[in-house]
Design goal:
The protein is an all-alpha fold. The chain is built from 8 helices and no strands. α3 packs across α4 and α7 crosses α8.
């Protein structure tokens, strides 16, 4: 039994070094989009690779599907699960469902990607989850509502609120950097 365990452990370690190591930064970036705490990000990255290693036999490379896309899907699922587990999505209803009439339009193209990433990461948990699922993962508000356990209106409101917050952050950033 010990020999079998040692062989499995060696195989998992070898699999990790061969297939997963180059993807750590990629997975970490995805998890950072959803989680504001560095400790939560580290947990999510670790859980992503544990889940990927345990379900690697089910991964099938098909046309249009890549290992990175499969890994990204796991990372998103793990990150959302951590948000739900910590109760960070329960406060989403507090903002209400009425978006304001302002339409943010700052010049976001002149903001460096690292700065924009930091702004997204500083959004409240609910807003950040919705903006990532909608803007980066291409999910509809109906899909987001099912995934996060909120109404479609709350999802749309959170997305709008996130856009407003990001617009203010971008405007402030551009004003500070132009001085």
């Amino acid at each position: 039994m010990i020999i079998l365990y040692t062989r499995i452990s060696t195989f998992v370690l070898l699999l990790y070094r061969m297939d997963f190591e180059p993807h750590i930064a990629f997975v970490s970036t995805i998890c950072q989009r959803y989680l504001s705490s560095d400790a939560d990000v580290e947990d999510a990255v670790q859980d992503t690779f544990v889940q990927a290693a345990s379900s690697f036999g089910r991964f099938r490379h098909r046309e249009g599907a890549s290992f990175r896309a499969w890994l990204a899907k796991i990372a998103v699922t793990v990150s959302v699960r951590i948000l739900r587990k910590k109760g960070k999505l329960s406060a989403m209803e507090a903002l209400g469902n009425e978006p304001s009439d302002q339409d943010p339009a700052p010049d976001y193209l002149s903001v460096p990607p690292d700065a924009l990433h930091g702004m997204i990461r500083s959004l409240p948990d609910g807003c950040r989850a919705v903006v990532n699922l909608h803007a980066f993962e291409g999910k509809t508000h109906k899909e987001i509502s099912a995934l996060l356990g909120i109404s479609e209106g709350t999802s749309a409101s959170q997305y709008h609120h996130a856009k407003m917050l990001l617009a203010k952050m971008i405007t402030d950033y551009l004003w500070r950097t132009e001085r």
